[in-house]
Design a protein that fits this description.
heterodimer; A: mainly beta; Cyclophilin; 6-stranded antiparallel sheet; 20 strands; 28% strand; B: Gyrase A, domain 2
Chain lengths: 293, 216
């Protein structure tokens, strides 16, 4: 019997299983979920020879540790952090071969927020509606990691031997965590619910990442956006990157676990390409919105 | 057969939001989208999300083109009501049933009769996986949300708010008026389909035990 698995030694502040998400079910009220930094997921998966859709770990701030029950190739990327195998420093951002029975320690992020950990063969928990992602809004997918939890791994492709062999990328370019978030935003569909002054505020004033941010939304501290129309909007469908403005006027940028419908007006939508950096922005990071067509 | 007469607005890079005159127009337009998708005449899309008076079409390669074409569409009537509606047996024992009956100006027994006599249709889903917003009650039976939401509404609670009836698929906070309880499983990821209620599904609520006991 092959025991391809890892056991959780230290779960960390919030570590979840993530892949590229659960799309196609929004009409049933199912959030898309998936990793907040999908480019990092594709890259760590590529480093260990997995398809980009394989499930990985997403850590938050202080990493996690697992004990391997089999020899496995791993790669840690996303937020830069110390990596140790049985206490010895190991490489970050590239493939590392770990023997069975070793403790793989992903340390606290030196910069950024979320590290991604790929295992050869991927994390093989049962998929729900086509995805292994943990959805913290609706509770679909596996529970967040807890100490002593065992995570099964899939069978690696023959490229599991990538470290010894051919064709692996040894020096991929990793974007650094942002010192400032510049979010390109396309106005609408409800920009007419806001005053002209509010739209100028959005386009010109500085915001900061609030510590209340999570996988559901990037919450911001800064000037409130004044409404031109009072009242509530009938619930309507929401997209990834939607900049929703609740009654307090502080914009919230919807991230992977966002609700599928909502009743607060959406002043604009942030470009999907700019959202990966949001995953790595620590509280206090300056944020600017740049309107684009 | 009417042209859709709707407003279509771009949402971000890959989505279009279609605004319609009301709930019925929204259901008809949603049904038309599904017809066109089934017939292969709709460009590839990732999500079609109906809501109260809008339909969001997400994951569109050329949203400007789709937004330009939509207002000219001919929209067919709602699909014919073929087959039986999904039956949901309910114990009408909710803590807000008496208050709802008072709001309606009828007895509790009459309120139950009104709710079991109506045929409902899932207008849209949201709030939680498998939570449907069901229309079908007459306008005069609209009720407000509770002033103070409950921190925990039990799974299987049958509830009213505004023009809608809903069934909580799992325990969650909620501000709807609770009129009863069902044992019917609304959401089961081990089942196909996972959601009992999807947009367009027809539903009838029956009084649990009523047939055996010969009514109340």
């Amino acid at each position: 019997m092959s025991d391809r698995a890892v056991a959780v030694v230290r779960a960390g502040a919030l570590t979840t299983v993530q892949d590229l998400g659960r799309t196609g079910h929004a009409h049933l009220g199912v959030p898309r979920s998936g990793a907040l930094d999908p480019a990092a997921v594709r890259l760590v998966n590529r480093l260990v020879g997995n398809p980009g859709t394989a499930a990985v770990l997403e850590t938050t701030v202080n990493g996690c540790a697992v004990r391997t029950r089999c020899a496995v190739t791993v790669a840690v990327g996303g937020a830069p952090c110390p990596v140790r195998v049985d206490g010895r420093p190991a490489a970050w951002g590239t493939a590392v071969r770990v023997a069975a029975g070793s403790v793989l320690e992903i340390g606290a992020a030196v910069r950024g927020v979320r590290a991604y950990v790929a295992f050869g063969g991927g994390i093989d928990v049962d998929p729900v509606l086509g995805s292994r992602s943990t959805d913290l809004l609706s509770g679909l997918g596996p529970a967040p990691l807890a100490d002593e939890m065992v995570l099964p791994l899939g069978q690696p492709t023959d490229t599991d031997e990538v470290v010894k062999g051919k064709g692996y990328v040894d020096a991929p370019p990793w974007p650094g965590p942002p010192d400032e978030l510049v979010l390109r935003v396309r106005l609408g569909p409800r920009e007419d619910w806001f005053t002209d002054a509010a739209l100028r505020t959005l386009a010109t004033r500085a915001y900061r990442v609030s510590p209340a941010s999570n996988r559901i939304g990037l919450r911001l501290e800064g000037p409130a956006l004044e409404r031109a129309l009072p009242g509530e909007l009938a619930s309507e469908g929401m997209v990834l990157g939607a900049v929703q403005v609740p009654p307090d006027g502080r914009p919230v940028v919807f991230l992977a676990d966002h609700p599928t419908t909502g009743g607060y007006p959406v002043v604009g939508v942030v470009r999907e390409a700019d959202l990966g950096a949001v995953a790595q922005a620590v509280p206090g990071t300056p944020v600017r919105f740049t309107p684009v067509r | 057969m009417n042209a859709v007469g709707a407003r279509a607005t771009r949402v971000g890079e890959r989505a279009v939001l279609v605004e319609l005159a009301g709930g019925e127009e929204t259901e008809a337009f949603h049904a038309e989208l599904l017809r066109r998708r089934a017939a292969g005449t709709l460009p590839a899309v990732r999500e079609i999300v109906p809501a109260a008076r809008t339909v969001l079409i997400d994951g569109v390669a050329d949203p400007d083109r789709l937004a330009a074409e939509l207002p000219g569409w001919e929209v067919g009537p709602l699909p014919a009501r073929v087959g039986a509606a999904v039956g949901i047996p309910v114990r009408y024992d909710g803590p807000d049933l008496a208050e709802v009956a008072t709001l309606w100006g009828v007895s509790v027994e009459a309120a139950v009769r009104i709710h079991t006599a109506a045929e409902f249709r899932v207008a849209f889903c949201g709030f939680a996986p498998g939570f449907g917003y069901l229309t079908g009650l007459d306008e005069r039976y609209e009720v407000p949300r509770r002033a103070t939401p409950r921190t925990a509404v039990p799974a299987g609670s049958v509830a009213l708010a505004g023009p809608y009836t809903g069934v909580y698929p799992r325990s969650s906070p909620g501000g709807w008026q609770l009129i009863g309880t069902t044992d019917t499983v609304l959401w089961d990821t081990g089942r196909e389909p996972v959601a009992l209620l999807a947009p367009g599904t027809r539903v009838r609520f029956t009084e649990a035990g009523a047939t055996k006991e010969g009514g109340r």
